[in-house]
Every structure is written in C-alpha cells, then in structure tokens.
Structure to design on (524 residues):
C-alpha cells in the first residue's frame, strides 16, 4: 500500500470511527496506521484453530 | 516522628498492634515527608491531610479500645488518582475529568477502609493511565526519587515515586500493560499485578476492560502481600472480579524456594536489553538457584506476537471508553494520549476479535508449555532503567512496556522486585511471573530473593 492510499485509509477509518482528526494530524495517524497494520498482518499469520474469543460474559444467575 | 514513615508496613503494624506506635504519629510522619519532598517530586495530585488525620485518630481510638483490625490498621497509604474516593475528585490526571467528584468509594478503597488503612491522598499518573512514562499529566509529571531528571515509569507514576520516597507506606496502582511493574522497577520498589479478576475494578477509571488489573506498590515483598490481602477477593458489584478463594499470602512467605522450578526464557525476554539490566537479572537467577530452586531454560510460546495482540485489544477498547470526549473535546487531551486514542480507530472489529481469539490460544499454550514445566517464569521487568525525562520518546515507551504488557494479555500474576542498580545508581527490577491465581508462590519466591539480598535497604537520595 502506498503513502497516498495509507493517508486515505487513515482518514476513512477516523471518519468511520466518528472521531474528529483534523487534516493537520492525518499524516501522524497515517504513520501510526502503518505500524498498527504491520502488527495486524503479523497476527493474521497465526493459526487460531478452534480458538474462540476470550470473553467473560456470564448470564445472570437464575 | 522522624523517619517513622520509613518503617515497613509489617514492622509498623506489629508496633501499632503492641500500642507502641500511634497511627496519628505515623500519618503525621508521612504528611511531614510529603510537605518536605513534594515540591520536587510531584507524586500527589491531592493530599487529603485533614481526612488522613481524622482517620488516623479513629484508628488510634479503635486500637486503644482493643479493636485491632489487622496489619493495615492505621497504615498510611495513597491511591492513584484513578480510584474513586467519595467526595474527592478523580481526575485521572486529565483536564477532561478535572472537576469530576466521586460520589462513592471504589471497591478497593472500600476494602482499604474496612482494613483500617489511612488514605493520604490521590497520586499522579500518566493521563488516563495511557502511557508508560508518567510524563503526560495535566498536573505535570512525577519525578523519580533516585534521579529527579528521570521518569518514574508509568502509568502509576505517583504511586512509584511516593512509596520510594517514603511519602506513603504503600500505594495502589493499576496495570494494563505494565503500569504497576514499570514504576516499581524504575523506582526501586515492589509492585504486583495480580491475576486478572483477583481485585475489584469497580470505581476505577478504565483504560481497557480486557487488560486492566489493580494491585499494590510497596517497599517490601511482605508489605505487598499484606496490601494485596486487604484488597483481593470478589466484589459482588464488579462482574469482572473472581470468587476464586484468596489464600493467606503471608502464611507461606517464609517457605523458601527449595523445590520450585523457575523458567528462564531463552527468547524475547532478553532481546534488545540493556547490558546492566541483563547482568542483574541473570545474577538474580543464580541467586534464586543458589537458594534451592531449579532454573531451566524455557521458550515461551507466541511471545513475539503478544505485544501486537495487546495493542489490537487495548487501543480500540480505550477509544471506545473515550469516544464521546474524543468527539467533543479532543483538544483537552495531552498530545500523546490523543494520538494513542486516534490509533484505536485504525483497527477493524475483525482485528479486535482475532486478538481475543489469540488470547484464548496463547493462554492455553502457556498453560501447557510453560506452567506444566515450571512454577515461575523469571525475566526482567523492563529492558532499560529509567530514561531521562527530556530524552523520553516513543521508543522509550515501547522499551518500557515490552516485557510487561504480554503478561496482561495472559492475565498472569507478576511481581517486580528490586534486583540491583546500574553504575549510575538507577534501580533494576526483576519480574517473577506465576500461574493464574498463584500469587502466593510469586510472593514466596520474591520474598526469598529479597531476603538473600540487600537491595531493599537502599534509599533514594531525595
């Protein structure tokens, strides 16, 4: 993904998250996006098998 | 009343129980110390002087009447300004919550009051507990008592500084990625992150519900056990707290390490490490081995993947909590915390769920591959000692959290205990990581090590 695509993606993600990230901050967020996506990419390589999400939801006691 | 505040909690408690020391004198000693060093340290956001004196007098009266409650009765402690104390501001070191007055005590403050502890005040922290240096606070940073030009570590920055400097005999902190163990390590004191769910989080400003833990910071291992004993256990008003029985942590404290199997990681935990830190931690492993434990090399599974999984859970959860303020008042955050919250938007829901699945996978792998072979894992708490305030940057933060935040994903109990000093006099922390719910063995090994060394006897120059 090139720098311009990253910039557009960062802007879109901030928009979808409904937080206000001014243009002056978008280059910083774009750089951050590259870092977080590298982490996500690393994690996608793992074989999760049958693992379900860790969760602590417990229905109320009867 | 000079230096009474330097007593350990255990020693002070024994003296109070014998009615040879008044909780009023002890509280006064701490308040005097606070007045003396606070202008340089900035560990407190608010000192509750009148309340502390009143509570100390109540404790003294109760004890005089023969109603001694236990080892926390009359002991002056302070709490990170993220725990609600009824009638007092909970600011989380932020501008956002600068006028936020709590209407009721948090679960752990309730427990502390029931134990008879005296609350001295509210301690500084990294804004909203979202940082490892302690530098970004609406009230200015706390400073490291060992070197005022250096960071305390965070986010429980005031907790580390206050206890190390002798302002309070113990403190409460929170730990989402290392925020108890990092300041404990950098300030030369003891801090434990107990098992996830061991301590109530009711009335605590959250950072990340999946990773937040509450725990104590003290000057000795025994004191840490005493404070954790007072706050551990199920809180019916906190669904995240567990009903797993809480053992008597002091009962086995003196049992030694003979027969314990200690795992020494051969990957990740010693990568990119400061050579003085590595030498001190390897020497600590030798010391523990010489005390009768078996030390063997172990390869913790998935270690390299854990920091990314933590980030993928922590950042979106933090943004979720802060979303309304991030929409309405983004300029009221410090720059670094605002940026971290913005980063929370860069993950998809599928990424978040993926990491929650990884958590399940990794917990099972560590149970089967690590804790089937050893009772404790031994590692550094941080890979570097306290960095200079004016040289701290993102790389310092990443270095500080590297060895602590994986343990938050696992929810394991982990203690930081002093294991040496650099040539320039900065503390180094040893991390001992135990099985889920087995804080007792963590304390037992940490106590044996502490007893075999004299690191805890050194005092910061402030």
């Amino acid at each position: 993904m090139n720098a311009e695509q990253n910039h557009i993606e960062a802007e879109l993600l901030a928009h979808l998250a409904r937080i206000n990230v001014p243009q002056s901050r978008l280059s910083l967020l774009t750089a951050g996006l590259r870092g977080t996506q590298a982490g996500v990419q690393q994690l996608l390589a793992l074989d999760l098998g049958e693992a379900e999400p860790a969760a602590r939801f417990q229905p109320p006691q009867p | 009343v000079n230096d009474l505040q330097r007593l350990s909690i255990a020693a002070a408690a024994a003296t109070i129980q014998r009615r040879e020391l008044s909780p009023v004198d002890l509280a006064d000693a701490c308040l005097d110390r606070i007045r003396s060093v606070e202008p340089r340290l900035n560990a407190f956001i608010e000192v509750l002087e009148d309340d502390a004196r009143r509570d100390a007098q109540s404790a003294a009266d109760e004890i005089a009447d023969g109603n001694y409650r236990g080892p926390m009765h009359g002991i002056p402690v302070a709490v990170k300004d993220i725990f609600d104390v009824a009638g007092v501001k909970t600011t989380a070191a932020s501008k956002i919550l600068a006028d936020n007055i709590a209407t009721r005590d948090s679960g752990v403050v309730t427990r502390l009051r029931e134990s008879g502890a005296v609350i001295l005040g509210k301690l500084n922290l990294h804004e909203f507990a979202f940082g490892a240096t302690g530098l970004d606070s609406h009230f200015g940073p706390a400073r490291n008592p060992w070197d005022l030009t250096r960071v305390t570590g965070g986010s429980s920055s005031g907790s580390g500084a206050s206890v190390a400097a002798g302002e309070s005999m113990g403190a409460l902190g929170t730990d989402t990625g290392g925020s108890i163990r990092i300041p404990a390590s950098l300030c030369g004191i003891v801090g434990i992150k107990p098992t996830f769910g061991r301590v109530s989080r009711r009335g605590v400003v959250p950072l990340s519900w999946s990773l937040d833990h509450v725990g104590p910071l003290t000057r000795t291992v025994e004191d840490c056990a005493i404070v954790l004993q007072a706050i551990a256990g199920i809180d019916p008003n906190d669904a995240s707290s567990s009903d797993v029985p809480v053992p008597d942590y002091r009962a086995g404290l003196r049992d030694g390490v003979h027969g314990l199997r200690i795992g020494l990681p051969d990957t990740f935990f010693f990568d990119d490490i400061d050579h003085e830190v590595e030498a001190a931690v390897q020497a600590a492993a030798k010391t523990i081995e010489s005390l009768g434990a078996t030390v063997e090399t172990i390869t913790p599974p998935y270690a390299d993947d854990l920091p990314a999984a933590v980030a993928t859970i922590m950042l979106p959860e933090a943004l979720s909590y802060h979303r309304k303020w991030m929409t309405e008042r983004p300029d009221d955050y410090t720059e670094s915390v605002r940026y971290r919250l913005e980063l929370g938007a860069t993950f998809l829901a599928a990424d978040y769920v993926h990491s929650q699945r990884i958590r399940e996978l990794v917990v099972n792998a560590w149970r089967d591959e690590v804790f089937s072979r050893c009772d404790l894992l031994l590692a550094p708490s941080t890979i570097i000692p306290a960095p200079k305030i004016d040289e701290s940057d993102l790389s310092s933060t990443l270095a500080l959290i590297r060895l602590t935040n994986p343990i938050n994903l696992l929810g394991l109990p982990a203690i930081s205990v002093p294991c040496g000093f650099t040539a320039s006099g900065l503390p180094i922390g040893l991390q001992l990581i135990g099985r889920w719910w087995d804080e007792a063995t963590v304390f037992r090994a940490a106590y044996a090590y502490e007893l075999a060394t004299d690191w805890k006897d050194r005092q910061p120059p402030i």
Observations:
- Helices of chain A lie at 3-16, 23-44.
- Residues 17 and 50 of chain A are 30 Å apart (CA to CA).
- The interface with chain B takes residues 10, 13-14, 16-21, 25, 28-29, 32-33, 36-37, 39-40, 42-44, 46, 48-49, 51-56, 58 of chain A (CB under 8 Å).
- Chain A has two helices and no strands.
